[in-house]
Amino acid sequence: MKLAWSHLYSWFLPKFSWVQVEVTSFCNASCLYCPQTAYRDVWQKRHLPLPSFQKLLPALNRTHLTYLQGWGEPFLHPDFFTMLALAKKTGCRVGTTTNGMLLDREKCDLLVAAGLDVLSFSLAGLDANNDCIRQGTSFAKVLEAMATLNRAKDRAGRSLPQIHLAYMLLRSGLGDLDQLPLALKGLGIDQVVISTLDFAAAPELAGECLPGDSPEDYQELSLRLENLRETAKGHGLKVFYRLPPPDGRLSLCPEQVQGALVVSGAGEVTPCVFTNLPVSRAVYAAPGGEVPYRRLVFGNINEQPLPAIWRQPAYANFRRSFFTGRLAEPCRHCRKLGSARLNN
Fold this sequence. Notes:
The protein is an alpha/beta fold.
């Protein structure tokens, strides 16, 4: 009878497109555009405890993708591989993003054996330009980490994990853009996702946001990215990008908050990584000027099951706000809400 009830109850659990889990907010790098660097004096460093992660497992059984990464380097967490194994047992796809500095042959072999589906590497330029922006990392070491992972896949005779590249395009890095396809050729990269700076944690970072305020800026960058995508095809690379449209806002969040969420290192449930930075008394540069940073949290998995938090009236009202136009405070200033649909 207990088993039958458990099976029946599972039908009423929500289904998620993805659940992003901030396994840690510790990092071994100091990227100039990262909130962790800008807010270093008030940043709260934490590992998500393994017992807290285990509370998520019933929900991950009905999740398409579990992403084990937030505002930190996931391989700093001492229980990362245990979390990976537990998530895979639920049947969902599992991915993570890394700066690549901690990957060696042993870790790559473990990732392949565990069945990690996606491993994304972060870059923000080529060669020395990347190393200057992403301080504490090395462009050359990232490429070597990709090669090490490819060798591990070859040894095991497996095609996973897919290698993705998360490329941060800053205004100061536009000069590297055209060289990107040739620099990444032959590295076994399945796809490159180019992002622009959505959250300017310090006033001086506002100038790095793209495309700009004018339709001409938008058209110029859009054309440049489209040319890049076509050139990349010739080198066997798939390139995806988003750009804020110059003439309005999207009615729905590109972070898919209607069917996805983020769990912080403290176990807090929040719509996206930008709505729950581990800081207090901070400001950021929004399109209209500097505004105080306000967190948006709907519950904690250490106190309530994830489905119960998801169904709370306050959380449901938040999701409905994208249809009514009465957005919550953090979302009103979000650059990402102006993003165009991801290119296919």
